[in-house]
Amino acid sequence: MVYAGEKEVRELLGVYFIMGSANCLKNPIEVLEDAIKGGITLFQFREKGAEALHGDEKKELAKSLQDICRKHHIPFIVNDDIELAIELDADGVHIGQDDESASKVRRRLGSNKLIGVSAHNVAQAKQAIIDGADYIGVGPIYPTVTKLDTEPVQGSTVIQSILRENIHIPIVGIGGITEKNAGDVIRFGADGVSVITAISHAPFPEKAAKKLASAVKIGH
Ligand SMILES: Cc1ncc(COP(=O)(O)OP(=O)(O)O)c(N)n1
Ligand SMILES: Cc1nc(C(=O)O)sc1CCOP(=O)(O)O
Ligand SMILES: [Mg+2]
After folding, report:
1. ipTM attached to this prediction
2. Domain boundaries, the chain
């Protein structure tokens, strides 16, 4: 078991690094090791896009990244691919509105795995709680170049409407987040920030992760 309860989930969301091989400018293993040195709190393996690995190559990379996470006690989350998460005994999964339903995934994974669900409005946030999600990913907060088929950019609006309605679930912001705006995302009411480009494209991923961690701390 990698987490004990809601408070711990909120802490885990602090600097949530998401990455796959296609996002990296150098070896993904080095990028992850540097990001961990810089202070990331959670990692999601998101092997997606035209250049993504498949089959055994995908599994081997996932295993290597999971080993690094285990060594450093960083929970390893798998994006979309529930079969892979089960096969590797990952610490959890992240699913979107177009993926397998969260309630079904909760039944498949049991109660001791972390499940994140993307939510773009209040109704989806409420449904995520009913379905047994541990946290929601809310975005895109800012314009992103990483994912083309996103919902419209929302700034603070969705996070704030979720909080105004007293919906109680850990929240991580996503989309276009950098060291410069991460503090604002926390001040909007998110528990943490999830980033791809800000770390994976940084010339020094360790430094980038450190700056994000510090912005998140100041934002709280
Ligand atoms: C933390 C976090 N939040 C949102 C997403 C996006 O998930 P989804 O909408 O399913 O899109 P893909 O990432 O699968 O393209 C995420 N991955 N992580
Ligand atoms: C994977 C993803 N999901 C989003 C959403 O809004 O649900 S935005 C996004 C891409 C995040 O990458 P970057 O940090 O490079 O902007
Ligand atoms: Mg998805």
Report:
1. 0.99
2. 6-219
Asked whether residue 34 is marked as a ligand-binding residue, the answer is no
| CA-angle at 100, arms to 94 and 153, nearest 5° | 55
Distance CA 130, CA 94 (A): 16
Torsion angle, alpha carbons of 3, 17, 44, 152, to 10: 110
> In the CATH scheme, what is the code of domain 6-219?
3.20.20.70
| pLDDT for position 48 | 95
pLDDT, one tens digit per residue, over 68-125 is 999 999 999 999 999 999 999 999 999 999 999 999 999 999 999 999 999 999 999 9
Tell me which of 46, 106, 210, 211 is the catalytic residue: 46
Cis amide bond preceding 140, omega within 30? yes
Ligand 1 mutation target, pool 47, 77, 78, 94, most atoms within 8 A of CB: 94
* Angle, in degrees to the nearest 10, between helices 122-131 and 102-109: 20
Q: Do the Cβ atoms of 75 and 12 come closer than 8 Å?
A: yes
Residue 199 burial (10 A CB sphere; 0-12, 13-18, 19+): buried
Calpha distance 88→203 (Å, rounded): 31
Q: pLDDT (tens digit, 9 = 90+) per residue, 183-214?
A: 999 999 999 999 999 999 999 999 999 999 99
Question: Radius of gyration (Cα) for the chain, nearest Å?
Answer: 16
Tokens of 51: 């250049």
And the tokens for 201? 């494209």
Asked whether 22 lines ligand 1 (CB < 6 A), one says no
